[in-house]
Amino acid sequence: MITGDxxxxxxNSPKKELEDLTTTAKSRPLTISQLTSQIRNxxxxxxxxxxxxxxISNYRPAASGHIYFSLKDSTASIATAxxxxxxxxxxxxxxxxxxxxxxxCHGKLSxxxxxxxxxxxxxxxxxxxxxxxxxxxxxxxxxLQAEGLFDPERKRPLPRYPKKVVVMTSPTxxxxxxxxxxxxxxxxxVEIVIVPAVVQGDGAAEQIITAIERANTQNLGDVMIVGxxxxxxxxxxxxxxxxxxxxxxxxxxxxxSAVGHEIDFTIADFVADLRAPTPSAAAEIVTAHxxxxxxxxxxxxxxxxxxxxxxxxxxxxxxxxVSARLKHPRDQIREQAQRCDELSERLDRxxxxxxxxxxSRLEQFMGKLDALSPLRVLDRGYTIVRDQxxxxxxxxxxxxxxxxxxxxxxxxxxTRQVRVL
Length: 421
Description:
- The chain has eleven helices and 13 strands.
- The chain is of the alpha/beta class.
- The N terminus is likely disordered.
- The longest helix has 44 residues.
- Among the domains are: 107 residues, CATH 2.40.50.140; 133 residues, 3-Layer(aba) Sandwich (Rossmann fold), CATH 3.40.50; 44 residues, no CATH class.
């Protein structure tokens, strides 16, 4: 490409015009860098995303981890470079890159200015047999992703405590055995419904679609595991079927995709409500809350048993303490009888003491009374003179006496009747 401020129209003859253009180009020549830059700016945007297939030759790995080789077919070749593949890089291919291998490469065209050559810069490489499938996979993936089938907001949540789990896989494969073993070990209360289907080869996608539709029509379970064991991309290709992807999206039963090993990805993994790295992992996922529930129940049971044990120990200690203070009724009766005897004795002693005091005081009073008694006076030779009539009054003075009056004289040892002379 020649650049510069050249006139678009000229009134001169064509020959004269060509001479003028040549003169102008000669007077303003391009540098090699400018020419290379123009070629690069023209070439690279047109080949930013290309798939190229061919045979590897002149394979040269560099100490930096970069890889250089030529990609050729029967009539042409192109320099190829792969940058950034260190020994531990996750982008390293899963196969050995070597001369003579037919491969499918994805990358962009780039111009290398120091040598003025163009080369293919590769960011993805697959064996040729898998490359065509991989390209179809990427195209379908991009299509479904653009439709929003991979959006997390669209996907259904899994039931926390599923009672019935549908397992859609080959009835004779290792995957079904792994799933059943894990579920029965972790959640023996969960019912397993196996819906058999061919999961490899021609017609496998149609059988898987039929099995999923049957599970939904008959409402066979609360959650469904769709999967199989590992294999090559060809073995797993039925799970990259577009119709199957749309059936998975339309399923009313939440679906867990468990296809192959952890490194394997299929379209079913992206459209399913959840992807499990392996069939066993899918079984662990659907039983996770049951396991947590069982652990919590075991913990509650242990804590309840511990609380009951502590309560029993406390009550036992209390009972022993109360029992130590509690006496047998017979012993209590004996103690009370003894207490009654002691109280009776104390009452007797108190009564005797009381009577003794009263008797002593009575004797004192009697002594005083006796000292004041008329009988004591009579004992000293005195007498009591009473009128013998009905009044029986005491005669205190001689003036009260009359002749022939009958009197009664009371002596210390008896009475006598007398008459006044």
